C-alpha cells in the first residue's frame, strides 16, 4: 500500500497511541505518509435508505447501483442455468475440469515431486487441464510463484494435518540487486494465474512480527493477482499485510486469516464466508485496507470490494474493521460475530474526510453480533444495511460464483 505512517488517535478521549506503519505499494514504494486512526468523533451511522453523513446522494446512488446490478446478474444466471440444465460453469473451466490430472508432492521422494516448486515447473505453459497437487503433510520452506501462463492449478492438503508453505521475506529484505524487495515481492506464495484453488493448506510468512514504526516490516503470506481463485479450510498466517488480495475474483470458505495491520488488503473483489479473522498484535490492529479508488460514475465502480459473511473476528489489542486505502474503499460485514476488541467507532477514514458526489468510502454492516457489533456508535459514514441493500453482498453472486466456484478437491492422504 502507498506509504503510510500512522499516529493513531483512539476514539472517545482515550490516550493517544503512536503506531508508525511502514510503506506499502504494488510498486514497492518506500514513501511514507502520516494520518490518524479514529479521526473525528463517532456519529450514529445511517441505516436503511437514509443518507450517510456528508454524502447521502453518493451513498444512496451507490447502494442502488449494487442492488440493480445484483438483480440483472441474478436474471442472467437464472437464464443460463435454465438453458444448460442447471450447469452454468464457464466453458474454459468446464473443459479443464473434464481433463483433471493429479500429482503427489512428498519430500521423502515417495511422490512425483519432492518440492512444490518442481511440481509447478512441470505444469505446461498455457495449461488447459485441472492439475491437482496432492501435498503430503510437512513444512515446505519454499517461495512460490504461480505464473499467469499456468492456470488451473490446485493445492490439496489434509486439513487435519496440513502442509505448511513458509518463507520469511519482508518488504525490507534485500534482493539480489541489493535493493529492498518491497511489499509485493515479499509474498511467500504469489498466485498470478487464473482458476487457482487450494484446500487444507497453510500459507505462512514466518518473518518476526513488525514492531510499531518498523520500516519495511510488511510481510505477505499470500498474494492473489489471478482471478477466480478459491480457498477452503486454509490458514493464511502472518503479521503486517498478511493477505494481499491484489486483484480479481476470489472466494474464501472456512479459512483462518491472522495478522496485525492491514492484513487483508488490495483491490480484489472477494467473498469471505465462515472465516476466522484474528488479530495477533497487542497494539492496534486494522483488519482491512481495501484499495478501491473508482468513482461511482465509472462503469467499473462495483468491481472491487470485500464482503465478509458469517465470519468471526477476535484477537489481541484494539481492532479496527478497516480503513480506506483507496478513496472509494468498500467493505461489508454481514452476520459476523465481533469480539469486544473491536473498537466502538469501528472504522478509520484514513485521509478521506467524507463521501462526495463522485464516490466515497462505503463501509456497511448487516445483522452482526457480539460485543464489538456496536453499530450505533460507529463513525458517521458507516452504513447499517437493510435486507435489500445487503443482499448483493451476502452470497456467492457477489463474486459471480455461479460460473466458477466448485466444491473443494479432496485430499488422498
From TrEMBL:
GO molecular function annotation: pectinesterase activity
Residues annotated as catalytic: 262
Enzyme class, UniProt record, top EC level: hydrolase
Keywords: Aspartyl esterase, Glycoprotein, Hydrolase, Signal
Any one of the GO BP annotations: cell wall modification
Name this protein carries in UniProt: Pectinesterase
Entry function: Acts in the modification of cell walls via demethylesterification of cell wall pectin.
Extent of the signal sequence: 1-29
Superkingdom field: Eukaryota
Coiled-coil spans in chain: none
InterPro entries: Pectin_lyas_fold (IPR012334), Pectin_lyase_fold/virulence (IPR011050), Pectinesterase_Asp_AS (IPR033131), Pectinesterase_cat (IPR000070)
Reaction catalysis annotation: [(1->4)-alpha-D-galacturonosyl methyl ester](n) + n H2O = [(1->4)-alpha-D-galacturonosyl](n) + n methanol + n H(+)
Gene3D superfamilies, A to Z: Single-stranded right-handed beta-helix, Pectin lyase-like
Ranges for domain Pectinesterase catalytic: 104-402
Species in which this protein is naturally found: Triticum aestivum (Wheat)
PANTHER family: ACYL-COA THIOESTER HYDROLASE YBHC-RELATED, PECTINESTERASE
Pathway in which the depicted protein is active: Glycan metabolism; pectin degradation; 2-dehydro-3-deoxy-D-gluconate from pectin: step 1/5
Keyword Glycoprotein belongs to the record: yes
EC number: 3.1.1.11
Family indicated by similarity: Belongs to the pectinesterase family.
Amino acid at each position: 500500500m502507498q506509504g503510510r505512517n500512522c499516529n493513531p488517535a483512539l476514539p472517545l478521549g482515550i490516550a493517544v497511541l503512536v503506531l508508525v506503519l511502514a510503506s506499502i505499494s504494488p510498486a514497492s514504494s518506500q514513501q511514507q505518509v502520516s494520518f490518524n486512526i479514529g479521526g473525528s468523533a463517532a456519529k450514529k451511522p445511517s441505516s436503511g435508505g437514509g443518507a450517510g453523513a456528508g454524502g447521502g446522494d453518493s451513498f444512496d446512488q451507490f447502494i442502488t447501483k449494487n442492488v440493480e446490478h445484483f438483480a440483472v446478474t441474478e436474471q442472467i444466471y437464472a437464464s443460463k442455468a435454465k438453458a444448460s440444465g442447471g450447469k452454468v460453469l464457464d466453458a474454459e473451466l468446464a473443459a479443464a475440469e473434464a481433463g483433471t490430472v493429479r500429482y503427489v508432492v512428498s519430500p521423502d521422494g515417495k511422490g512425483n515431486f519432492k518440492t512444490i516448486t518442481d511440481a509447478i515447473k512441470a505444469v505446461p505453459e498455457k495449461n488447459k487441464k485441472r492439475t491437482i497437487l496432492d501435498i503430503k503433510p510437512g513444512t515446505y520452506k519454499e517461495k512460490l510463484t504461480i505464473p499467469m501462463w499456468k492456470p488451473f492449478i490446485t493445492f490439496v492438503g489434509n486439513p487435519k494435518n496440513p502442509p505448511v508453505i513458509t518463507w520469511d521475506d519482508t518488504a525490507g529484505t534485500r534482493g539480489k540487486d541489493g535493493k529492498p524487495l518491497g511489499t509485493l515481492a515479499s509474498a511467500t506464495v504469489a498466485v498470478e494465474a487464473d482458476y487457482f484453488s487450494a484446500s487444507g493448506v497453510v500459507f505462512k510468512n514466518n518473518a518476526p512480527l513488525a514492531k510499531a514504526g518498523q520500516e519495511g516490516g510488511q510481510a505477505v503470506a499470500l498474494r492473489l493477482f489471478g482471478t477466480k481463485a478459491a480457498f477452503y479450510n486454509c490458514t493464511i498466517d502472518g503479521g503486517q499485510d498478511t493477505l494481499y488480495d491484489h486483484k480479481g475474483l476470489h472466494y474464501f470458505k472456512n479459512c483462518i486469516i491472522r495478522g496485525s495491520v492491514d492484513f487483508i488488503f488490495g483491490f480484489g473483489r472477494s467473498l469471505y464466508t465462515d472465516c476466522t479473522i484474528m488479530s495477533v498484535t497487542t497494539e492496534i490492529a486494522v483488519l482491512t485496507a481495501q484499495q478501491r479508488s473508482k468513482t461511482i460514475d465509472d462503469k467499473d465502480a462495483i468491481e472491487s470490494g470485500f464482503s465478509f459473511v458469517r465470519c468471526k473476528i477476535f484477537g489481541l489489542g484494539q481492532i479496527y474493521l478497516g480503513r480506506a486505502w483507496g478513496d472509494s474503499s468498500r467493505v461489508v460485514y454481514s452476520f459476523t460475530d465481533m469480539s469486544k476488541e473491536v473498537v466502538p467507532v469501528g472504522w478509520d477514514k484514513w485521509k478521506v474526510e467524507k463521501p462526495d458526489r463522485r464516490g466515497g468510502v462505503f463501509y456497511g454492516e448487516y445483522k452482526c453480533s457480539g460485543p464489538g457489533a456496536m453499530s450505533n456508535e460507529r463513525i458517521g459514514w458507516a452504513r447499517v444495511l437493510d435486507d435489500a441493500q445487503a443482499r448483493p453482498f451476502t452470497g456467492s453472486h457477489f463474486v459471480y460464483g455461479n460460473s466458477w466456484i466448485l466444491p473443494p478437491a479432496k485430499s488422498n492422504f
